Amino acid sequence: MSHNLNQDKLLKTPSPSFSVDEVNEIANELYGISGTISMLGSERDQNFHLVTATGDQFLIKIANSSENPAIIDMQLKAMEYISKVDSDLPVPKVLLSKSGSAIEEVEAKDGRKHPVRVVTYLPGVSPRNDYVSNLLFRQMGLILARMTRALSGFFHPIANYELMWDLKHTAKLRDYLAFITNAEHHELVSYFLDRFDRNVFPEIPKLRAQIVHNDLVPDNILVAKDDPNQIIGIIDFGDLTHTLQVIDLATTIAATLNETTDPVAVAAQIVAGYNELIPLEEAELRLLYDLVGARLTMLNVIASWRVTIHPENQDYITGGVDQTWRILEMWRDRDPEMVAKKFFRVCGFWEHKAVEQRKDQSGKEIDSLLSRRERLLGPCAYLFYNRPLHIVRGEGVWLYDDEGNRYLDVYNNVPQVGHCHPHVVNAIAQQARLLNTSTRYLHRLILELAERITDRLPEPLSVCMFVCTGSEANELAWCMAKLVSGNTGALITKFSYHGSTGATAQFSTESIPEGNLPSHIQTLFAPTSDSTYRKPDSGIRDAIMALNENGHQPAMLILDTSFVSDGIYTPPKGYLKTLFAETRTAGGLCIADEVQGGFGRFGTHFWGFEFDDVIPDIVTMGKPMGNGHPIAAVVTRPEIAETLANQTGYFNTFGGNPVSCAAGLAVLNVIEKEALQHNALEVGQYLKGGLHELQKDYSLIGPIHGSGLLLGIDIIGPDRKPIPGIADRIMNHMRENGVLIGITGQHSQILKIRPPLVFEKQHADLLLTALRNALDEL
Ligand SMILES: Cc1ncc(COP(=O)(O)O)c(C=O)c1O
After folding, report:
1. pLDDT score of 533
2. Which atom of ligand 1 is nearest to the CA of 501?
3. Where are the beta strands (DSSP E) in 439-588?
4. How far is the CA of 470 from the centre of ligand 1 (A)?
């Protein structure tokens, strides 16, 4: 790993270790002052407080031996400069040594040389951590602007040195990401680093820059003992550098935020104070959200790195860091546009032109994508939501659009273990670098995956055939069922979906108008929450009779065991058993389509057919199997596979290729290692509980059904019947508020909840809040 910033050495070199007595001698010899000396805290230097017999107070600073004396020279000259141009600004005064120098040098016992300087020690006290005062926040903004104005004519040749704490260099923090071991923190930091790269970096050359204090934070100001709103001292010029004015402002804001006060309100006060003296430009205000995020990110990243260098200094370095992570989370939860809007307001820009313009640009891109898509992909490629989303990145349960806005994904079951799970991504990449071929060669991975899948299924389901999509899996199952049974009919539920190929499209009653079903297909009732449908046989006998009348016997019964298109239901005990028995009596095979619900989503079971005491003849699976990589499978008994081989054979060019198998294995590993089935159970129950609570307040919420992290919520009217359109409005309202769900059911009346299985209780809370808001505002 390369650490690019020149502070590495400085931060790695141990602090000087002069004793109080030695410092007394130094003060006397070099500066002609003496008195009572006490040591103050410092991370990389040594600071001493000296009080003379006459009551004068000084700060003696012995710098780290790696400190560049030119930088110290700049700091001292800046203080002198400020005193000349704004003598009321309360900054320390430089004490010259007996020989007339602002900087002296002292040698430590170990022979290292340290620059030393003395400045006046300012009176006053640090503001209390828990002190919340709009007046103080405003004063901080104002005094920062005064400092900037005072320094506006100041120059020093070393001013463009590369300071780690200068937010211009935020992008370099990526070199330190390996030191962040907490996955959520990693995600948080990446979010702000991405935003910085995209939004801030290209704008840097266009913004106002000069030498600024760059560390005017609560720890570096002193307020009057009897008036906590009056700033009477500004100390620590250690981060003085040439950078953007708005970076200086963001640095102050970030350090002033606390956990208990609305961060945007605090920031707005500081902005307003600053703007009183130095009117901010629109372009600066637009970047402030990202710069504050970048500063908080920087504090966290550097602290994570530095504890690894100075574990002995852990408390000093990480003091308050947990809080900083939480503040960064709070900041991330703010809508960047709303924050910018607030800043625009306090600075008197009533027209939020800049943001509107950006929105307009993004809007224009979406329009262009839409028209190209319509032309190139045709009218079947419809999009979700009234305002389609342009998603460019995913991570865990989050999706990010082209403007960096994030959305909670409560819809997608394909990224079963979370969007772009690193374990799966690595497995795919590694295997793709090594080999990808068809299955006409021996390969270990395909066998491992087949073993891992069949281990999860009951005997005698022991043969696994790999394909690429759920549709292909069901098509193959259908072929097998016809060959083995010698029959030609199919039994499906009333509003099902089983695929898009020639045969499976006909099993997808979801998109076939009633009455248009081919004569070899008959439907039965899914186990909906409407008790009238829970007939013992769900109408299967009538369905089989109807097939007979059309000259067919059932070759198969195929059931999506999660009944997602029908409305998301879990089969009650006896449902599958009855249907399987009736089908087998009529000579058909029973197929569990686990494409939707399989792989642990139900929480209680790994597969949906396990809700009942049945063993299917064939199990099909797909969607979540590769976490987004196209892989699907058909598992059956050896004699069924034998029949297929003897009669037609089967080959699928891409099915079971090593890369797909690597993905499939990685998904199973993650499900097991991260206990995601258990998580689905626990978080699913928690979410269901929350939904039942919500149900008490909103009569629109009807039955809630499903299991684990696969839930359906009926939206009903006063007569308890579905009301068309309302579920759609709720879904779109939630989308506008950053939560993505879907709808399903015959009347599109059911909210569909089907998130990646890394969904946590905190995400369930966000979902519940967004749903409540939608119901309130409909
Ligand atoms: C239950 C079920 N079976 C099969 C399929 C078809 O899978 P694919 O889209 O991968 O072909 C789907 C797709 O949504 C499905 O929900």
Report:
1. 40
2. 11
3. 463-467, 489-493, 521-524, 554-560
4. 5
Detail the DSSP E strand segments found in 85-150.
94-95, 104-107, 113-120
The DSSP code for 31 is: I
Q: Would you say the CB of residue 412 lies under 6 angstroms from ligand 1?
A: no
Position 90 scores a pLDDT of 96
496 Cα nearest atom in ligand 1: 1
723 exposed, middle or buried (CB, 10 Å; 0-12, 13-18, 19+)? middle
Residue 27 is given by DSSP the state I
Residue 470 Cβ contacting ligand 1 at under 6 Å: yes
How does residue 530 score in pLDDT terms, banded at 50, 70 and 90?
Answer: low
pLDDT value at position 351?
47
d(C-alpha 526, C-alpha 558), whole Å:
12
**Contact partners, residue 381, CB within 8 Å, separation at least 6:** 373
Within 13 Å and on the Cβ side, how many CA atoms surround 47? 14
Phi, psi (degrees; rounded to nearest 5) at 116: -130, 145
Summarize pLDDT for 252-269 with one digit per residue, the tens.
999 999 998 999 999 999
Atom of ligand 1 nearest to the CA of 472: 11
Classify residue 302 as exposed, middle or buried by CB count within 10 Å of its CB (0-12, 13-18, 19+): buried
For ligand 1, say whether the CB of 499 is within 6 Å of any of its atoms: yes
In this prediction, residue 313 carries a pLDDT of: 64
| Top-confidence residue, 228 or 2 | 228
Find out whether the beta carbon of 498 lies less than 6 Å from any atom of ligand 1. Answer: yes
Global pTM reads: 0.62
| Angstrom distances, CA of residue 458 to CA of 463, 507, 614, 665, 707 | 11, 26, 10, 19, 22
Cα 621 to ligand 1 centre (Å): 9
Ligand 1 contacts CB of residue 538 (under 6 A): no
Q: Is 595 near ligand 1, meaning CB less than 6 Å away?
A: yes
- Rg over CA atoms, the chain: 34
Q: Whose C-alpha lies nearest to ligand 1, atom 4?
A: 498
Report the interhelical angle of 282-309 vs 263-277 (nearest 10°).
120
- How far apart CA 30 and CA 50 sit, in angstroms, is 14
- Coil, helix or strand for 440? coil
- Prior bond of 724 cis (ω within 30°): no
Could you give the percent of the chain with pLDDT greater than 90? Answer: 80
In total, the chain counts a number of residues equal to 778
CA pair distance 489, 481, nearest whole angstrom? 10
What CA dihedral angle connects 369, 742, 416 and 761, to 10 degrees? 120
Ligand 1 binding pocket mutation candidate from 412, 416, 596 (most atoms within 8 A of CB): 596
Cβ(630) to ligand 1 under 6 A? no
Closest atom of ligand 1 to 469 CA is: 10
Q: State the Cα–Cα distance between residues 254 and 263, nearest whole angstrom.
A: 9
Ligand 1 mutation pick, 471, 507, 619, max ligand atoms within 8 A of CB: 471
Among all chains, which residue has been given the structure tokens 């199952």? 477
Alpha carbons within 13 angstroms on the beta-carbon side of residue 283 total 11
Burial code (b: 16+ CB inside 10 Å, e: under 16) for 140-169 equals bbbbbbbbbbbbeebebebbebebbbbbbb
Q: Strands, DSSP E only, in 168-281? A: 209-212, 221-224, 227-234, 241-244
Give φ, ψ of 411 to 5 degrees.
Answer: -115, -35
- Whose CA is closest to atom 13 on ligand 1? 499
